[in-house]
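Quick log. Single chain, no ligands specified.
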Amino acid sequence: MKSSPEHVGQSLKIPSLYQSSTDLRPRPTLMDESNSKPEGSKSQPPASHISPPETNNTTVKSKKRRNTNWDVNPEEIRCSDWAMVPKSTPRKIPPEHKAAYKELQIADTERSSADETLGMARQALEDAKRHLLWAEERSEEANNRFHVAREEVEVLDIQRPDFKWNEMFAKLVEFKERHGHCRIPASDPEFAKLRTFVRGNKVTYREYQSGRRCTNRAHRMIALERLGVFTSKWEEKYNELVEFKKVHGHCNVPTKSKENQKLGNWVGWQRVGYRKCKAGKENQLSEERIKLLEDIGFCFNVFEANGIVRKRRRKEAEEAVADSSD
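-> predicted structure:
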């Protein structure tokens, strides 16, 4: 027997809560027949025959339980992007609350402005870094090009035949190729002009070092320095000793060898000067030169290094022991 609409309404007894359009509670949803039941099963009744949940105090438990375990703490939630700040002050709140809300809104506006400024500054910093890298590469290329061009100009300037300085420099180069050094003898009148040239450039070089003089031809001083004009005799022998150690592995140059006889004599005089320096006597061995010799492993006393006690010192030691026993 088919029921009338009035009979259906009376049998369902729909409460007034489900008839209101402002109800926010979730209503029961229907599942599709094709997804809820397999083929061959009985079909569900139409939606009009489903009774709403009872209006008693019993709660309907969901099949799937929600996971309420969060991995973040409240402070992280407060500082996150989705924690919004109220844009307006709520009504009907105490005055002190209104002041707090107002301060919160001002602080939020200032924070947004500061974050925007910070982002712009970081972007400007990245742009500046890229620009700095480009500028450094360009500066390095320009400096290399400048040095190459300046060196070419300096070489051509020294080779010009119309300069008197270039003529004397060529004679000095020839003198060194012949004698192996730039120390012009004072007794030979043939090299009087060349000796005057060397002496004058040494004075000029000292003035450059002290800052009392400037020049736009510094390459001339560099050429003289590379030639060895400003190198003293002690520095020449020191350089020879360095080369000797590279070959033999020590600085004990034999004095009886004809090959290195002059260097051996120079080494002996350095040991004599060291003993005078320790005794407080006048000598030409400065502390700076002593430091240079120590840096290359120079031995100032060969006997003590080899454990040899000389006869005079042995006699002095024996006398000291005899005096102490008495």
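Residues 154 and 309 are 59 Å apart (CA to CA).
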